[in-house]
Amino acid sequence: MYKQLIPNLSVDSIVFGFDSVQLKVLLIKQDIIHKGITYHDYKLPGDIIRKDEDIDTASKRILKELTGLQNIFMKQLSAFGSLDRLTRRPRDLSWLISINHPDERVITIPYFSLINLTQDHLALTSKACWTNVDNVSALSMIFDHKEIFEFALESLRNELRTKPIAFELLPPKFSLSQLQKVYEILFEINLDKRNFRKKILSLNYIVPLKEKETGVKHRPALLYMFSQDIYQKLKTQNFDFTI
Amino acid sequence: MYKQLIPNLSVDSIVFGFDSVQLKVLLIKQDIIHKGITYHDYKLPGDIIRKDEDIDTASKRILKELTGLQNIFMKQLSAFGSLDRLTRRPRDLSWLISINHPDERVITIPYFSLINLTQDHLALTSKACWTNVDNVSALSMIFDHKEIFEFALESLRNELRTKPIAFELLPPKFSLSQLQKVYEILFEINLDKRNFRKKILSLNYIVPLKEKETGVKHRPALLYMFSQDIYQKLKTQNFDFTI
DNA sequence: CCAAAAGTGTTAGGAGTACACCCATGA
DNA sequence: TCATGGGTGTACTCCTAACACTTTTGG
Asked: Which candidate, A39, A46, B8, B226, has a CA 20 to 30 Å from the CA of B33?
């Protein structure tokens, strides 16, 4: 079984989904039986890496197997490799034995992904569920997966603060109010609508379309798109440090 | 020989050193004989990870073995794991065979480190050399090590722009002019002395000492230190996004 | 006293912030 | 016609950027 795998190396995905109201994360339910007691634990979707796939490919494969999603935003985070990460809790060890996991330590490489949840292409397996990120702290997770989740959430916020990726949480065509909501919800702040629009429009790489929202019972918003093209051209190092 | 190692996993170090004039990087000379011709190649210091050490420990061990340095700034970058990374050049393959490297692919985890080069604690091995980062592009490096180096340099600049780490390239007590030079040299810009000092002093976590430079033939500068303590206390999320 | 780098204030322009009302649509 | 969120402008404040001379030290 493990002949074509690298037994010491896995990838884990932290898939963040945004539904205009909450930030959610994709978790897998994992019941663990230990000393006769059943524990309802959660884990991140992940898998051991195959010998014949590179690590980005492995991460894409797992995400596709789980959600059917392809070609979505994905960023590698730094690896988690402490010696005892699989065996800190006795019940995790029981579970590893029950699935015949080889007695090897595993270093994992986490990837975070961003998707919009109001789109309809989510064919989840029965054990996968979307969980509000605010509720994760109350769950019990195997191994160091809660630590990895928290690191990923912090990394997501860092990226959001400095890179144009907020729209990866939105449909390809989005309104400025939707975009504002991403920042408001992820940073738990309120932003002034007029100032926000001024700032975004001054960037020039978020471009208005000739299209409006449909099916809303109020004045429909103009839709915008992110232009990678214009962004790359404008990224002329306006040096600025904020340490 | 490989019994206690994880054959598919290595760490590589990108050690940046600053001498007040240039940014340098620590490279290892590696001659490779291929089809009767000797090539003078370079590589990054690195090693396969042992089964009984976690990845941060591995990186620290290698750095200590090479430079005698301990307790210096170190940050993990994201892994490099394409399938063909060791075998893109025929001569790299020849070299792997000559050192009896097992026929396994290797995923590497890079770490970058920062040190000050005017200090004297550098007991380098004979094959290690400090190279001006501007000269690296002209060198030939094994595997994907040039790519890793460039990624590390870009990451260093990103970190410098957003985190208080510039003084990791300086002695513990430094003058504001030295600090300014770090930014000027790493970003290839000129900064206004008065504005720079105003900005740095307004941060409050770079604190003046009661000590001055010695042994200079001009007016001696007041020395400063970075206070991790004050920094942590002040880091009260002043939200600000610059995408 | 000369050379070299340290240290210091002010002003003008631009960016960020605070703030309130009319508009377009569906029900 | 009502409810809902979309869309807009201005004034004030604060931060940033530009700019030149005096001070301290060693030789």
From this structure: B8
CB contact set of B171 (below 8 Å; sequence gap of 6+): B116, B118, B119
- Give the whole-angstrom CA distance, residue A73 versus residue A12: 15
For the domain spanning A2-162, the CATH number is 3.90.79.10
Q: Does A205 touch chain B (CB under 8 A)?
A: no
Q: Which residue is nearest to nucleotide C3 (CA to C1')?
A: B218
CA of B237 to C1' of C12 (A): 31
Helix (H) or strand (E) holding B203: helix B193-203
Which of B2, B5, B6, B191 to mutate to probe the A interface, most A CBs <10 Å?
Answer: B6
Indicate yes or no: strand D within 7 A of the C-beta of A199: no
The residue that minimises its CA distance to C1' of D25 is B219
List phi, psi (to 5°) of B168.
-65, -20
Spatial neighbors of B117 by CB under 8 A, at least 6 apart, are B17, B18, B19, B24, B130
The CATH classification number of B165-234 equals 1.10.10.10
* Residue carrying the six token digits 């019994």: B3
What region does B108 belong to: left with phi over 0, alpha with psi -120 to 50, or beta? beta
Instruction: Tell me if A9 and B161 make a contact (CB, 8 A cut-off).
Output: no
Chain CA centroid to CA B221, Å: 27
How far apart are alpha carbons B4 and B140 in whole angstroms?
32
DSSP 8-state secondary structure symbol assigned to residue B80: B
The whole-angstrom distance between residue B123's C-alpha and the CA centroid of its chain comes to 17
Hey, is the C-beta of B162 within 8 angstroms of any chain A C-beta? yes
CA distances from B232 to A143, B7, B72, B197 (A): 29, 40, 19, 21
Rounded distance between C-alpha atoms, residue A9 and residue B107, angstroms: 9
Residue whose entry in the numeric block shows the structure tokens 């195959």: A50
Reference A166, options A229, A219, A94, A116; nearest CA is A116
Domain ranges of chain B: 2-162, 165-234
